[in-house]
Amino acid sequence: MSETADKIPAPPVPPVPPEQIKAIPVRHYGRWVAGALVIAVLVLIGTAFSNAKINYSIIPQYLTDGTILSGAWHTLYISVLAMALGLVLGVVIAVMRMSSNPVTSTVAWFYVWFFRGTPVLVQLLLWYNISLVFPVLNLGFYKNEMNQVMTPFLTALLGLGLNEAAYMSEIVRAGIQSVDLGQTEASHALGMTQGKTLRRVILPQAMRVIVPPTGNEFINMLKTSSLAYAVQFNELIKRATDISSTSLAVVEMYFVASIWYLILTTVFSIVQYYVERRYARGSSRSLPPTPLQRLRKNLRLFGSFRRPEVAR
Amino acid sequence: MSSLSKDTGIGRAPAGGPMVRAEGVHKSFGLSHILKGIDLEVNPREVFCIIGPSGSGKSTFLRCINHLEKISAGRLYVEGDLVGYRQRGDKLYELKEREVAAQRRDIGMVFQRFNLFPHMTALENIMEAPVQVKRESKAVARERAQRLLDRVGLGDRTGHYPAQLSGGQQQRVAIARALAMEPKLMLFDEPTSALDPELVGEVLDVMRDLAEDGMTMIVVTHEMGFAREVGDSLVFMDDGVVVESGHPREVLTNPQHERTRSFLSKVL
Ligand SMILES: Nc1ncnc2c1ncn2[C@@H]1O[C@H](COP(=O)(O)OP(=O)(O)OP(=O)(O)O)[C@@H](O)[C@H]1O
Ligand SMILES: [Mg+2]
């Protein structure tokens, strides 16, 4: 190897020029075909709807009609309250279900079994007719005719909320079980009681698993609350049908109601996104971008798709 | 470096008697008999090392000391008090959850897998127990947490979440978290086993420092170098019994039992 030392060194390899690569991007012809097909179908459906006997011109004016607005408000608040009841009761039932006490865990099991196993509409109607079973409500300090107590609001709240609790308890249970056992041990080793451990350590971590399906449940609840129409609660569908029975604009009113449902679910999808972000704290090194940040990024990408930098 | 004892009350010695005393401690999980009569004494300010092969019951014994596991037979005392029970006459009464929690306050524990709370920053992890358990004010707890972080060399990582820290940094935060309760006794369960080799040193340095401050420590470890240099006593456990005990240098260089010899020949 020693003779190689006095050999003339080979000429250095020319370095790769530090220019930007200019390549022709892959053409996605399939995308253009699919896009054209989608537009064609949309046009067909659009013309069919516009030729139907539907009086579209009255929809905008009814969107902000006082009766409809009050219906949307009732839908919103019964959904929020029923969901809140479902969430709190759901946590309680989930904790009962996982308790080592066989009585509490069996009670929780039966609760979920019953409320998940029967239709919500039936549950609402049962609460509506609860006076058949308990004609008088007597709490000791408070006594009244059951028919007086069970207003449409309370009927809707109990019917929707108790049913929701059954579903929420399963979601919460899955969330709690997703948290590493080492967390409980570390918390206990620090001298925290079971209750404190649950509130300060387990539930905040379980939230990451609980929040996404809960958002789903809430959006479901916004629409399921329309069943409360059967117990005379003045939510959106009830108010829409009230109007259509006098104005004869039946389908138009369903359109109005649907637009409101879309508005409500859209707003809550956005809220859900930010709640999820909040509970993602500490689970990854950096938080995901907000929709606004993502929109800006997508616009940039879209821009570069429109003007490929290749040809220039 | 040894400033901790003055400003955080760490290392104060209890009045006489051993810190931990185990008398014929047994533990079974269902049919499997894991601890088969452990007798030992850990004195105040002592660094007590436990070594032994995997599955010999080292973690189980450590977890019995702060009642994360209930012992099946025998007696276990910390500072003269029965762990998890109260004795009246010849009857034992289980302690209530709150009383068990109160006993655990004085015993810090550091886990192999750190077990930091991932939804809290380093500082919040350390403040949590003093605020929640001791009802300390946030300002006081924060000040001590900051001091402890400085002490373990992480004063500039207060706002970091565990996922943003290296393994060695996480373990140092975990030690600081345990110290925040001003424990009289620290239990370490293989605190460096989950770490990359180059990170082991920084954690052992913190522990060495703590030992110099006079903290009573029970350390389950595979770091024979640490046991030899820092340890005051060492026991070798195998199959749920203490096979051999003595001064670390004695046991490690001149083991008396065949099982100890064959174990040491594998790990050294
Ligand atoms: N909760 C439990 N239920 C049943 N068996 C258990 C439980 N915890 C531990 N064991 C068993 O007890 C034995 C001793 O476990 P332990 O964790 O104490 O061993 P170790 O000496 O710490 O080992 P390592 O060095 O691997 O950590 C093992 O065989 C283990 O399977
Ligand atoms: Mg172990």
From TrEMBL, chain A:
<keyword id="KW-1133">Transmembrane helix</keyword>
<dbReference type="InterPro" id="IPR010065">
    <property type="entry name" value="AA_ABC_transptr_permease_3TM"/>
</dbReference>
<dbReference type="InterPro" id="IPR035906">
    <property type="entry name" value="MetI-like_sf"/>
</dbReference>
<keyword id="KW-0812">Transmembrane</keyword>
<keyword id="KW-0472">Membrane</keyword>
<dbReference type="GO" id="GO:0022857">
    <property type="term" value="F:transmembrane transporter activity"/>
</dbReference>
<comment type="similarity">
    <text>Belongs to the binding-protein-dependent transport system permease family.</text>
</comment>
<keyword id="KW-1003">Cell membrane</keyword>
<feature type="domain" description="ABC transmembrane type-1">
    <location>
        <begin position="72"/>
        <end position="272"/>
    </location>
</feature>
<dbReference type="GO" id="GO:0006865">
    <property type="term" value="P:amino acid transport"/>
</dbReference>
<dbReference type="InterPro" id="IPR000515">
    <property type="entry name" value="MetI-like"/>
</dbReference>
<feature type="transmembrane region" description="Helical">
    <location>
        <begin position="72"/>
        <end position="96"/>
    </location>
</feature>
<keyword id="KW-0813">Transport</keyword>
<dbReference type="InterPro" id="IPR043429">
    <property type="entry name" value="ArtM/GltK/GlnP/TcyL/YhdX-like"/>
</dbReference>
<dbReference type="Pfam" id="PF00528">
    <property type="entry name" value="BPD_transp_1"/>
</dbReference>
<protein>
    <submittedName>
        <fullName>ABC transporter permease</fullName>
    </submittedName>
</protein>
<feature type="transmembrane region" description="Helical">
    <location>
        <begin position="254"/>
        <end position="275"/>
    </location>
</feature>
<dbReference type="GO" id="GO:0043190">
    <property type="term" value="C:ATP-binding cassette (ABC) transporter complex"/>
</dbReference>
<feature type="transmembrane region" description="Helical">
    <location>
        <begin position="32"/>
        <end position="52"/>
    </location>
</feature>
<keyword id="KW-0029">Amino-acid transport</keyword>
TrEMBL record, chain B:
<keyword id="KW-0547">Nucleotide-binding</keyword>
<dbReference type="InterPro" id="IPR003439">
    <property type="entry name" value="ABC_transporter-like_ATP-bd"/>
</dbReference>
<keyword id="KW-0067">ATP-binding</keyword>
<dbReference type="Pfam" id="PF00005">
    <property type="entry name" value="ABC_tran"/>
</dbReference>
<dbReference type="GO" id="GO:0015426">
    <property type="term" value="F:ATPase-coupled polar amino acid-transporter activity"/>
</dbReference>
<dbReference type="InterPro" id="IPR003593">
    <property type="entry name" value="AAA+_ATPase"/>
</dbReference>
<dbReference type="InterPro" id="IPR027417">
    <property type="entry name" value="P-loop_NTPase"/>
</dbReference>
<comment type="similarity">
    <text>Belongs to the ABC transporter superfamily.</text>
</comment>
<dbReference type="GO" id="GO:0005524">
    <property type="term" value="F:ATP binding"/>
</dbReference>
<dbReference type="InterPro" id="IPR017871">
    <property type="entry name" value="ABC_transporter-like_CS"/>
</dbReference>
<dbReference type="InterPro" id="IPR030679">
    <property type="entry name" value="ABC_ATPase_HisP-typ"/>
</dbReference>
<dbReference type="InterPro" id="IPR050086">
    <property type="entry name" value="MetN_ABC_transporter-like"/>
</dbReference>
<protein>
    <recommendedName>
        <fullName>ABC-type polar-amino-acid transporter</fullName>
        <ecNumber>7.4.2.1</ecNumber>
    </recommendedName>
</protein>
<dbReference type="GO" id="GO:0016887">
    <property type="term" value="F:ATP hydrolysis activity"/>
</dbReference>
<feature type="domain" description="ABC transporter">
    <location>
        <begin position="20"/>
        <end position="264"/>
    </location>
</feature>
<keyword id="KW-0813">Transport</keyword>
